[in-house]
């Protein structure tokens, strides 16, 4: 019987490389993985500017001098210089002349002018000097123009977006987020909120998997429910970068996914509990990850196989983040299967509080942040945990 690692390798081989990169507006590329390096177009800051709220003065100014205030320079205004005996009230980030060798900024706290909103004073008394600091930031002090700023393989997070926009990088070449279609099968499933017919249960898998796909980085997540009819299942498929199914892959007489995709997909058992029935392959050109239908089994299997598939298509590292933590709760073991138990990870004390891993107990999933992997005949209280955040 295949191991979890065996089946994950099969899924990733089926999915293949990352989606082809395309150009995106930087402000629209949050979460995407860069396909190429990008260098600063603009220097940051793009002009010399004041690092403090205060007064721009000539460097001949001494403590005790009373200076004539000749101008105000708030942020967004043209620069002004100060001659001997003069001061220019200036705000943080406001420009100073590019040739500022004879200029310095005196913080407002070192003058007789109270901090905060004030009318432009006629004069300012310099009470003290800020040592040898000029409180002026040079053009390109943070990032020179042409400096490599973003690297291929990096994920564009909030900080990198801010840096890129500040540096004039308006577009980036990045792998798009994969489009995912999720199909849950089963005559027993009723839409959330709908009256239940005989033998029916609410379809909790579909919204759960849709949220997990979005959390994993998918875009344009489409969901659908199909009855236990292979023909209707095939009618439901459509263009997507990844198709995820839930249910219909076991050895039952009414398993439409297995019946519909048996020619192009592998189906079998993996040495894990819950979620032994698994499947993967292609439907046309679209890679397919087939998950079990029981809620906890679907939840566990999504993290094990579908989330890495989404990460791989997006150009991210598909590997799991594995922690080794001290178990709190019953460590259930099986002789021939890896037991997977959703758990709550406490990073501060290095523990994993184990929940109830029974495949039908969906209420045990709330708030879990990891999957404890209990190998066969494991005897140690320290266990490997996939951290899911």
Automatic annotation (TrEMBL):
EC class (word): transferase
Start and end residues of each MoaB/Mog domain: 181-312
Keywords: Magnesium, Metal-binding, Molybdenum, Molybdenum cofactor biosynthesis, Transferase
EC number: 2.10.1.1
Reaction it catalyzes: adenylyl-molybdopterin + molybdate = Mo-molybdopterin + AMP + H(+)
One GO cellular component, as annotated: cytosol
Any Pfam family the entry gives: MoeA_N
Gene Ontology biological-process annotations: Mo-molybdopterin cofactor biosynthetic process
Obligatory cofactor(s): Mg(2+)
Source taxon at top rank: Bacteria
CDD domains in UniProt: MoeA
Xref: InterPro entries: MoaB/Mog-like_dom_sf, MoaB/Mog_dom, MoeA-like, MoeA_C_domain_IV_sf, MoeA_linker/N, MoeA_linker/N_sf
Record carries keyword Metal-binding: yes
GO molecular function: metal ion binding; molybdopterin molybdotransferase activity
Pathway info: Cofactor biosynthesis; molybdopterin biosynthesis
NCBIfam families in the cross-refs: molyb_syn
Family: Belongs to the MoeA family.
Described function: Catalyzes the insertion of molybdate into adenylated molybdopterin with the concomitant release of AMP.
UniProt-recorded name of the protein: Molybdopterin molybdenumtransferase
Naturally occurring in which organism (per UniProt): Corynebacterium uterequi
């Amino acid at each position: 019987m295949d191991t979890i690692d065996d089946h994950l390798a099969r899924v990733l081989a089926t999915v293949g490389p990352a989606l082809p990169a395309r150009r995106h507006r930087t402000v629209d590329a949050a979460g995407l993985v860069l396909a190429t390096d990008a260098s600063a177009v603009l220097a940051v800051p793009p002009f010399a500017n004041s690092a403090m709220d205060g007064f721009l003065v000539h460097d001949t100014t001494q403590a005790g001098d009373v200076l004539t205030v000749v101008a105000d320079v708030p942020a967004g205004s043209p620069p002004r210089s100060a001659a001997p005996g003069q001061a220019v009230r200036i705000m943080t980030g406001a420009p100073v002349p590019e040739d500022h060798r004879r200029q310095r900024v005196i913080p407002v706290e070192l003058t007789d002018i109270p901090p905060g909103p004030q009318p432009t004073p006629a004069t300012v008394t310099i009470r003290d000097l800020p040592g040898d600091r000029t409180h002026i930031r040079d053009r390109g002090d943070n990032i020179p123009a042409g400096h490599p700023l973003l690297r291929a393989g990096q994920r564009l997070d909030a900080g990198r977006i801010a840096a890129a926009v500040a540096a004039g990088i308006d577009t980036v070449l990045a792998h798009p987020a994969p489009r995912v279609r999720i199909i849950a099968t089963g005559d027993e499933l009723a839409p959330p909120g709908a009256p239940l017919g005989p033998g029916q249960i609410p379809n909790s898998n579909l919204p759960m998997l849709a949220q997990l796909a979005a959390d994993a980085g998918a875009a344009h997540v489409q969901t659908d429910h199909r009855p236990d009819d292979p023909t209707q299942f095939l009618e439901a498929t459509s263009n997507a970068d990844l198709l995820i199914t839930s249910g219909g892959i076991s050895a039952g007489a009414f398993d439409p996914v297995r019946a519909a995709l048996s020619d192009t997909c592998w189906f079998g058992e993996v040495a894990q509990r819950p979620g032994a029935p698994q499947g993967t392959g292609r439907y046309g050109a679209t890679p397919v990850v087939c998950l079990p239908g029981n809620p906890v089994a679907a939840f566990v299997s999504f993290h094990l196989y579908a989330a890495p598939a989404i990460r791989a298509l997006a150009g991210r590292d598909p590997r799991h983040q594995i922690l080794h933590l001290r178990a709190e709760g019953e460590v259930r073991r099986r002789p021939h299967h890896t037991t997977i138990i959703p758990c709550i990870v406490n990073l501060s004390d290095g523990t994993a509080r184990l929940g109830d891993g029974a495949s039908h107990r969906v209420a045990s999933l709330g708030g879990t942040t990891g999957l404890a992997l209990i190998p066969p005949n494991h005897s140690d209280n320290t266990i490997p945990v996939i951290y899911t955040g």
